[in-house]
Amino acid sequence: MSSIAALDSDQIGKIGIGAIVAFVVIGALLSMVITAIVGRIVILVVVVALGVLVWQQRTNIQDHVKDCNLKMTFVGIHIDAPQSVQQRCQNIQKK
Questions:
Q1: How far apart are the first and last CA of the chain?
Q2: Could you tell me how far CA 61 lies from the centroid of its own chain?
Q3: Residue 77 phi, psi (nearest 5)
């Protein structure tokens, strides 16, 4: 006698509910993982952009000091050169 396994309507309903629950759980886990990854990527982009901004501003100030152009700003804030730099620039301008 051969035995053929068939699903009746009660089993199909249970499998369907189980599959839906599994999809919801998997979807929730994936959304948490993706949200964490996207959050880390956003933080990384912001930190790199701020690093580039500070580096650019630092280079700009360095160029101003080399040229004795002491009217400088760092991220929009006016800064004064140290007295030693001001003295050096005055000595250079006298010559």
A1: 114
A2: 26
A3: -105, 125
Fill in the amino acid letter for 36. A
3-state class (DSSP) for residue 7: coil
CA angle (24 as vertex; 18, 26 as ends), nearest 5: 100
Nearest to 65, CA basis, from 49, 87, 81, 47: 81
What does the block give as tokens for 28? Answer: 């929730």
pLDDT at site 4: 58
Place 6 in a pLDDT band, splitting at 50, 70 and 90.
Answer: low
Residue 72: exposure state from Cβ atoms within 10 A (0-12, 13-18, ≥19): middle
Q: What is the mean pLDDT of residues 14-42?
A: 93
9 pLDDT above the threshold of 80:
no
What is the greatest pairwise CA distance in the chain? 114
